Amino acid sequence: MGETVIEKIIRNNVGKAVKPGDIVTVNVDRVMIHDIFIPFVAEKFKEMGFTKLWDPDKVVLIYDHLVPASQLDDTRHFHVGDEFAKKFGMKNVHRSDGICHQLMTEAGYVKPGNVVFGTDSHTTTYGCVGAFSSGIGYTEMASILGTGTMWIRVPETIKIVIDGELPENVMSKDVILRIIGDLTAAGATYRSLEFTGSTVKNMSVASRMTMSNMAIEAGAKCALFTPDEKTAEYCGIELDDFQKSLAGDEDAVYMKTLTYRAEDFVPVMACPSQVDKIRPVEEMEGTEIDQVFIGSCTNGRLEDLQAAAEVLKGKKVADYVKLIVTPASRKIYRQAADMGILDILAEAGAMITHPGCGLCCGRAGGILTDGERVVATNNRNFLGRMGTSKVQIYLASPRTAASCAVAGKIVNPVMGE
Amino acid sequence: MEKFTGKVWVLGDDIDTDIIIPTEYLALKTIDDMKQYGFSPLRPELAGQIRKGDIIVAGKNFGCGSSREQAPEIIKALGIQCVIAKSFARIFFRNSINNGLLLIEQPTLYDEIKEGDEVTVVLNEHVDYNGKQYPIASLPENLMDIIRAGGLVKAMRKLNGLD
């Protein structure tokens, strides 16, 4: 019988065919731990009685949520992390290079077909290159560090087919927001999403990354794209036969299939305070805003900054609006600088911050207070996510966000000149 | 047959991990330091009102959002004996099992329950409320093994020959 992409990846990993509902133990190819949780991982690892890592080279430690430190005790996490890395012989440590999910693919830690876990829910991101990746807690991470294995339940698959050409003011963020609205916030819980169709084949890896990243907002365990020549180029590899085979078979069994015509998508936003409360931007037009945020592991990549720059070129941010731009990694920051993108953004009045998670997770760099409204390109608009519980967060694409920054209120995205 | 009774706090659908414990408190040193902020974005007074042995009943997708394991740890530290919800988010579910917080999926109790009432849980069988029985499923064997060991840390200690 045919297999879905996730079934192929798990079969390859465990060496036997699997079906949804099977409980299997996988061999882990790579793990990611970030700064917030490293003290807890280190403590649990010790408590469990382990004395060495199963494979130090497969462990990646990334400081991003607390970079740069904003509160008195934050740097303790770096000291604990550095000590752990030194004690157990870890080489893969990033102290200020960018956001974990960006770095895991950008720095080549994840390859198509890999099985990867991270102490962060947005670990689903690496599905953009066809890897099975999912978030876990720190206790479970500690047990992987000792054993190199983890039990999983083979998920059912929801197939999402998108064909055609997207309207020019629609970005992949609009696509995934619409899909989350259709699936609802719990609609893909425990399930694997599999994206296919001419629209996603034409997307850049960066655009796919936005979609895999946000799949967790529908509860998904992972969100997979079939590796292709773009994936190979992005990862700097040649795809082997197994990696090339990672497409859903014709006769694979899907829990359900959602089919979309690309031409039907419009710019949308997730309105306060649920990720699945999706409305066309047009319906929300005129709502006044206090701040705009363009960045995060969802939308802080070069093409996102480029879209913002197209809109902002020769324009000014409305005078009562704060525009904060955070590239997702140091590499992107430097590319954007070389291409003159940062210059355009700064000229328009943007505050450009160092790569990190600060504002998206409500810890630093532009947090808001009661009654304020923010249009943001990150992935969550939960109560209290970016400041007090009375901040209203509207999630949107970088193009929409930049357009709103100029208008000083919610407006449908414009294309720039 | 294990059986226990507790007073119920009722929360809604999609209770996310930022509600259970906002990111700004995650770098506090201990769970005890954090627990007073539990559920604060939604109900700031709740953490102070919960008593040992109480039970949370909620709607669908409880624990959605981030991978923060402090979420189940705080619920447990506040004294909650189990969470009964229509459904749970995936990472929260694993984290709860690994920390020995009992989760029970029950599709209809939430629609009928009133906050402050008492329910009785008969493990792996049903929940008693208002003279009515609400059936519940039993957990898969591999998860019961972790719970029986007293959580994943203890299971690993056993593996390493420590206990």
UniProtKB/TrEMBL annotation, chain B:
<keyword id="KW-0456">Lyase</keyword>
<comment type="similarity">
    <text>Belongs to the LeuD family. LeuD type 2 subfamily.</text>
</comment>
<dbReference type="InterPro" id="IPR015928">
    <property type="entry name" value="Aconitase/3IPM_dehydase_swvl"/>
</dbReference>
<feature type="domain" description="Aconitase A/isopropylmalate dehydratase small subunit swivel">
    <location>
        <begin position="52"/>
        <end position="107"/>
    </location>
</feature>
<comment type="pathway">
    <text>Amino-acid biosynthesis; L-leucine biosynthesis; L-leucine from 3-methyl-2-oxobutanoate: step 2/4.</text>
</comment>
<dbReference type="InterPro" id="IPR011827">
    <property type="entry name" value="LeuD_type2/HacB/DmdB"/>
</dbReference>
<comment type="subunit">
    <text>Heterodimer of LeuC and LeuD.</text>
</comment>
<dbReference type="Pfam" id="PF00694">
    <property type="entry name" value="Aconitase_C"/>
</dbReference>
<dbReference type="InterPro" id="IPR000573">
    <property type="entry name" value="AconitaseA/IPMdHydase_ssu_swvl"/>
</dbReference>
<keyword id="KW-0100">Branched-chain amino acid biosynthesis</keyword>
<dbReference type="InterPro" id="IPR033940">
    <property type="entry name" value="IPMI_Swivel"/>
</dbReference>
<keyword id="KW-0432">Leucine biosynthesis</keyword>
<comment type="function">
    <text>Catalyzes the isomerization between 2-isopropylmalate and 3-isopropylmalate, via the formation of 2-isopropylmaleate.</text>
</comment>
<keyword id="KW-0028">Amino-acid biosynthesis</keyword>
<dbReference type="InterPro" id="IPR050075">
    <property type="entry name" value="LeuD"/>
</dbReference>
<protein>
    <recommendedName>
        <fullName>3-isopropylmalate dehydratase small subunit</fullName>
        <ecNumber>4.2.1.33</ecNumber>
    </recommendedName>
</protein>
